[in-house]
UniProtKB/TrEMBL annotation:
The lineage of its organism: Eukaryota, Viridiplantae, Streptophyta, Embryophyta, Tracheophyta. Residues 116-189 form the Acyltransferase C-terminal domain. Pathway: Phospholipid metabolism; CDP-diacylglycerol biosynthesis; CDP-diacylglycerol from sn-glycerol 3-phosphate: step 2/3; Lipid metabolism. It catalyses: a 1-acyl-sn-glycero-3-phosphate + an acyl-CoA = a 1,2-diacyl-sn-glycero-3-phosphate + CoA. Its EC number is 2.3.1.51. Keywords: Acyltransferase, Membrane, Transferase, Transmembrane, Transmembrane helix. It is an enzyme of class 2 (transferase). This is 1-acylglycerol-3-phosphate O-acyltransferase. Belongs to the 1-acyl-sn-glycerol-3-phosphate acyltransferase family.
Amino acid sequence: MGSSSGWSMWFSGCISLERSWNKDENILKSGFRELNDFHQPFWLALFVEGTRFTHTKLLAAQEYAVSVGKPIPRNVLIPRTKGFVASVSHLRSIIPAIYDITLAIPKDKPRPTLLRMLRGCSSVVHVRVERRLMQELPEDESGIAQWCRDVFVVKDALLDRHLATGTFGDQEYQDIGRPKKSLIVVICWSCFLFFSAIKFFEWCPFSWGGVVFCAVFLVLVLVLMQILIVFSKSEKSTVPKGPPPNTLKQNLLPA
């Protein structure tokens, strides 16, 4: 979720959106008002950082933090609070709580990639979930924005601890295993694709040329998906005017 560079939100069972707050503010506020009359249970997921985390964006966030005298992030980006404030202001009467979720990948484990998923390789991801009652949040917009920024300062410290110890703290570790629902979905899709492939080869006479064509087509699709993922790592960030480079280096905390 963001201000100038855009933000994204996800309604469970409804729709996924990625919008620019400055361009679509009235449309989004209208959507929030309609959610007050929405009679089905829903989840609203907000990505408050507003963009994918990259090293270049982290440097831009650190420069901005130095220029305005804010805590310097080491593992997260500075949250963009306009969309979050609007969400809380319009939905606090119908949403009882906020779930603050922090994800981390152990440094001794391989990172999840598209290739690993296609190969069926599992990945280890540590998830910390904290339930925060909506009534505990400040009432005014500036207070809500500051609350969000404070949460990210704590989140940054938690990620520091995870890098050092491999855990988020002293909380009991719970291995949730593989959810049965996800396993059922995978089995159903696998059966569907398997029988579809059988029907396809029954309909289409077997030939090595056809097999080669299918293999090449699959490789091209995978390559295209990987290219799209790489290009989605936008490095565009608006960096405010900050102090001279030497001052910046002296003020940045060690990673």
